[in-house]
């Protein structure tokens, strides 16, 4: 894709808009529910949805949001989407446990909802009308441990040590070349295009 002239941050949370505007003053922010977007058909040349759709309670909500993204994407436009990877046994276990336990143990500070295995996600995207160009798994480090260690290091170590830790975590990405990548990847990532009819 070529470089974009205009970017929009779309989120239902006012706090996200305020943080985005502080960090990127020229960014256009829109408060909207992705299941009912306030844009005309074919408005966007490209869409990036970075682990935002896996917070719904039902598959119908997830499917409805993908249909809305399809609607507002122009024919020939591309979308990059990531969701929690249900083929990863840690994600599967996490999604089977009650959220109140996860929150009380400070494992997950926010609600995590329905997500899909890679093949099911691909099938759903194709049912909606997208052409799937790529499906992969990303972020292969043990995320729960990595987040806990990173928080501790941020408070107690220098940036040089933190940099070494990040390079250590990046080394886990070599697992993305193995046939087991959907077992170890924390997120499933897809790149799709809206076909030109």
Task: Give a verbal description of the structure.
The protein contains 8 helices and 6 strands. The chain has helices at 14-23, 59-72, 89-96, 99-104, 118-128, 143-156, 159-171, 181-184; strands at residues 8-11, 28-31, 44-50, 73-84, 130-138, 187-194. The strands form 2 sheets. Strands 3-4-6-5 form a 4-stranded mixed beta sheet.
Labels describing this entry:
197 residues, 6 strands, two-stranded parallel sheet, alpha/beta, four-stranded mixed β-sheet, Rossmann fold, 22% strand, single chain
The percentage helix is 40-55%
Strand content: 15-25%
The quaternary structure here is single chain
Instruction: Please state the overall shape, judged from the principal axes of the Cα atoms.
Output: globular
- Give the end-to-end Cα distance, rounded to a whole number of Å: 20 Å
Main pleated sheet: 4 strands, mixed
What is the structural class?
A: alpha/beta
Identify the CATH homologous superfamily of the domain at 32-140 and 178-194: Vaccinia Virus protein VP39
**What is the CATH topology assignment of the domain at 32-140 and 178-194?**
Rossmann fold
The CATH first-level class of the domain at 32-140 and 178-194 comes to Alpha Beta
- Please tell me the overall pLDDT: 88
Order of strands, widest sheet: 3-4-6-5
Figure out the total of helices.
Answer: 8
